[in-house]
Design goal:
The protein is 0% helix and 51% strand. The strands form five sheets. It has a seven-stranded antiparallel β-sheet with strand order 1-2-5-6-7-8-18, with no helix packed on it. Strands 9, 10, 11, 13, 14, 15 and 17 form a seven-stranded antiparallel β-sheet that branches. Strands 3-4 form a two-stranded antiparallel sheet.
Length: 224
Amino acid sequence: SGAQVNQYRSLTGNTIGLDKQFQLSIASPINDFQPFSFSGNTLSRDSRYRQMVSFDSYDNKNNITQFTATDQVPVSILWDYLNTEPIAKVTNAAVDQVAFTSFEADGKGGWAFSGTPATDASAMTGGKDYVLNGSNNITKSGLSSSKSFIVSYWSNPGSAPVNGSSGTQMASANGWKYFEHKLASGITSVTVSGSVTIDGLRIYPSDAQMTSYTYSPLVGMTSS
């Protein structure tokens, strides 16, 4: 026997979305069940309900950007293409601690930069990349000083300095090289600089796992 309670919250545009889900699961019948109730802003439910999932945050288009299952780690989702497609899913990381851009769409995926991406048929992820010229750096701030991070990207011809340090080449394909930079804890911001062409730029905590995606209109997913 069991029961479930869905708790909702107010979202952008006077819409309603899931906030938390609770599950009551018991081994045998009970006679002291306390029905769900509320008085003003106070909610009451049976103490044997267990929270199964929390939908921690939504974006302004009401897409889920972070959720946490019971006894699990947070899962973050980055959205782009006018907030219609998920461009990254990150397990064990808060949404403000990750970033990804393939320079394809309207958004910047949590990164900050002022330059204009370049159309490039040879780009590693999608059809655009970004030419660093020594003055149009890419940055990410607000990182947790208690965590270590990994910055990764494809570049051509070599490594782009991250906080002034070179990365480790992990792979190569089609004239591009894949680099990773491992940043120790205590760092709260990163700067990607240099004079190289870069694509598929990501940052995430070193104990997290990120999967990123690109899309083409009317075609669908083009890389993962």
